[in-house]
Every structure is written in C-alpha cells, then in structure tokens.
C-alpha cells in the first residue's frame, strides 16, 4: 500500500521535507500547494514535481490521502482541521495551534474522523531526548523529581528574515507572538520522556524594550509585550518542570534538556552533556555519544555532509537508529539534529498502517497547552493556574526509532 501526499506551503522550511516525501518508498505521488504562483512554479521545477495546486481548498478536493501543513505558524490549527474534515491525514509543522479553542477543535477532529495526525516536533528525535527515553524506560532515573527545558533563539539569529517571509509587508503585525505560544521544542522533550503532563503553572514574562518594536503590544496582533517567558509547572507524576522560552538572549542558541531523578540525572549545558548518579566517580560524559555527526551516504557507512553548521540543523548521532530508515533517504537532508527523516518516515508509516504516531494529536496538546496557560499566567502576574488536559488518546507503542 502507498499514499499520495499534498504539501501545503512550499516556502523555505518545506525545502527540507519535499525531497523526503518524494523519495519515500510508500509515497506514490506528491502534490505541491501554495498561494504564491511564482513560488509554486519554482518549487515544482526545482524538485521535479509536476503536480501542483493553488490553494488548500482545492488541495482538499483532490485525491491525496494526506496533507502536510507547512504554512505560517498561526494558521496550522485551522488548516489541519480543514484537511481532517476533508478526509485527509495530516502532518503539521509546529506549533499545532495558537489557542485553547483551536487545539480543542483539532483533537475533536481527529477523534471524530479517526484519521492520522502527527505534529512535526523535531525535539522528540533529538539525541538527548532519545537517550533519556531509553534510560527512563529502564527505570535508571528512579522517580523523576525535576525537569528543565529551554528554547533559546535570539532575534539576531535569523528570526527577522523568518518573520518577514512569513508575514510579508505587514510582518511587524504577525511577529512578536508570545514565546510560550511556541513551547513544543522544550516541553516535548520532558513530556515525551516521562509520559507525565502539566497540571498547574505559574508563569512570568520579561517586558521587551528593544528599539525594533517587535513586542510593542500596540503593533503586534497578539497584544504581547514579552520577549522572554519562564514558567514553573506541577506535573501529573508529582515532579516539577521549568520551561524557558527566550527570544532576547545573549546565547548562541539551544534546545536544551536536563532531567533529575531520585537515582540518577541527565544534565545539559551549551558545551556539556552528562549522565550523573549519587557517586561523583560514576559521571559519564555523553558529548561524543550524542554529538551530531552526519547521515550515512551509502550502505557501507560513509558519511554525508550535515545540512548546516548553525548548531541546530545538523545530522544524526550514534543513538539514532538510521538502519530503520528507507534506503531511499541515504544522502538526503536530515536537519534539526537528525530529526527530519524520522518525522517523515513515522508519519508516512502511520498513515499506511492507519494508526496514530508517537507524536499524535493528544501529545501535541500536551506539548502546546502548558505554554498557552503559562502565558495567561504571566499576563496575570504569575497567578497559579490549572492546565487543562485533553486526554491520553489511544495506546501508542514505542516508535520505530528505538525510543
């Protein structure tokens, strides 16, 4: 069995995924879709994909089995619901939605249609998350006490360009969204390891004073003044989780994870990754094991060049099970610390098998909702608030990535 996939939104980020969907042995046809006629024509020629569609409305009326939504981030929720209601499986770039109403409607659409939905959360496949999931499954942490997740990405590291091509001439209106509306990179690593979900939160925001005016509440449509947000969560397993989402930060940038248990811990800094126990002599330096190195260029193990060298778009590590990937992926891009190929393969496989992937809609909700409520708490000066939970969803086995 194979499927036909429509890719909605063929901008810069889609460049990393179009070749993978096209090459996957279980994808028989790819259709490109974008409102920008020139961009659509250029991508059709560049990737040698003749089938195109001028809008999501029309794409939903075609015979594609699945639609990958890779559009502006505030459009993901409604577009995913539209595709699901049209009878299509959905892959969505992050975030899954930007409001409680949108994420609730998205979960309802999946439950009512029975179709496959996957959130394209790259951090789930990061080496540190893979390593910690395996350790957790072997009970090596003991009981989890505390976790830290952070996404540090300063505006000087490419965000102006991203905001401008997303928002066009009115980019200042669509930029400046609350950092906690984009929490999935950091929240997912802890939630995907422990299986716990947030129950309560107290959040705080850093009022931005930068001259660019991105976070002027009278300018951005979000009415948001925070460029950095921090939140402390109570988790369903009794542990505590701290999340930082920073967009003004003197830091090279990272998606980081640290996790502390009663018996052992994983601790990460910008230049160090270690496994710790109560005995100082048992500390294990994981820097080499978890370092991104590249992807196999051929079956004999020769390595291909990594996608880029900016610290976030690099190749696989030793803990990635590249043997489970299609041979057709060999030599193709595999960005965001080796996650892209696993994302595409897990989604396509779930569609073909008519099942929900590990990063399903219920997990997407648990990655997103904590941030939405954290921002609301920050606007209320740190008020302790309950975090709604939309349930577990169906049982999902361990993903084929071995994690």
In short:
The chain is of the alpha/beta class and 403 residues long. It has helices at 18-23, 37-46, 56-59, 76-85, 100-113, 127-137, 159-167, 171-174, 184-194, 287-290, 335-338, 340-353, 361-379, and strands at residues 3-8, 27-33, 52-53, 66-69, 89-92, 117-119, 144-152, 198-207, 226-235, 240-246, 254-261, 264-269, 272-277, 284-285, 295-296, 303-304, 385-386. Helix 4 runs parallel beside helix 5 (100-113).
What does it look like?
The protein is of the alpha/beta class. The protein folds into two domains: about 120 residues, NAD(P)-binding Rossmann-like Domain (Rossmann fold), CATH 3.40.50.720; about 220 residues, Dihydrodipicolinate Reductase, domain 2. It is globular and about 60 Å long.
Any chance you could write out the topology, listing elements then pairs?
Blueprint: E1 3-8, H1 18-23, E2 27-33, H2 37-46, E3 52-53, H3 56-59, E4 66-69, H4 76-85, E5 89-92, H5 100-113, E6 117-119, H6 127-137, E7 144-152, H7 159-167, H8 171-174, H9 184-194, E8 198-207, E9 226-235, E10 240-246, E11 254-261, E12 264-269, E13 272-277, E14 284-285, H10 287-290, E15 295-296, E16 303-304, H11 335-338, H12 340-353, H13 361-379, E17 385-386
Parallel strand pairs: 1-2, 1-4, 2-3, 4-5, 5-6, 7-10
Antiparallel strand pairs: 7-11, 8-9, 8-17, 9-10, 11-12, 12-13, 13-14, 15-16
């Amino acid at each position: 069995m194979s499927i036909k996939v429509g890719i909605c939104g063929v901008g810069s980020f889609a460049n990393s995924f179009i070749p993978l969907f096209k090459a996957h042995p279980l994808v028989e046809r790819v259709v490109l879709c974008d409102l920008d006629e020139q961009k659509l024509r250029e991508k059709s020629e560049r990737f040698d994909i003749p089938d195109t569609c001028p809008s999501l409305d029309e794409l939903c009326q075609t015979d594609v089995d699945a639609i990958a939504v890779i559009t502006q981030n505030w459009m993901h929720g409604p577009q995913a619901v539209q595709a699901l209601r049209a009878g299509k499986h959905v892959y969505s770039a992050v975030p899954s939605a930007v409001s409680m109403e949108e994420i609730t409607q998205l979960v309802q659409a999946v439950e009512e249609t029975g179709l496959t939905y996957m959130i394209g959360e790259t951090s789930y496949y990061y080496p540190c998350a893979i390593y910690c999931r395996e350790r957790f499954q072997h009970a090596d942490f003991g009981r989890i006490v505390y976790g830290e997740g952070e996404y540090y990405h300063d505006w000087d590291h490419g965000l102006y360009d991203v905001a401008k091509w997303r928002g066009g001439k009115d980019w200042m209106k669509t930029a400046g969204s609350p950092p906690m509306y984009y929490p999935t990179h950091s929240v997912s690593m802890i939630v995907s390891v422990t299986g716990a979900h947030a129950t309560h939160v107290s959040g705080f925001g850093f009022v931005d004073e930068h001259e660019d005016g991105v976070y002027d509440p009278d300018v951005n449509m979000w009415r948001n003044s925070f460029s950095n947000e921090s939140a402390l969560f109570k988790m369903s397993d009794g542990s505590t989780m701290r999340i930082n989402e920073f967009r003004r930060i003197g830091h090279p940038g990272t998606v980081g994870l640290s996790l502390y248990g009663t018996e052992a811990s994983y601790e990460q800094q910008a230049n160090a990754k270690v496994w710790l126990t109560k005995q100082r002599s048992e500390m294990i330096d994981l820097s080499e094991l978890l370092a991104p190195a590249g992807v196999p260029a051929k079956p004999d193990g020769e390595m291909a060049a990594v996608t880029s060298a900016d610290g976030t778009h690099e190749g696989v590590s030793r803990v990635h099970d590249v043997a489970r990937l299609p041979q057709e992926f060999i030599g193709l891009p595999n960005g965001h610390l080796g996650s892209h190929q696993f994302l595409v393969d897990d989604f396509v496989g779930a569609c073909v098998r008519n099942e929900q992937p590990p990063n399903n809609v219920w997990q997407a909700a648990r990655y997103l909702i904590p941030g939405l409520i954290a921002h609301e708490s920050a606007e209320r000066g740190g008020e302790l608030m309950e975090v709604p939970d939309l349930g577990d969803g169906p049982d999902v086995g361990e993903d084929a990535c071995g994690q």
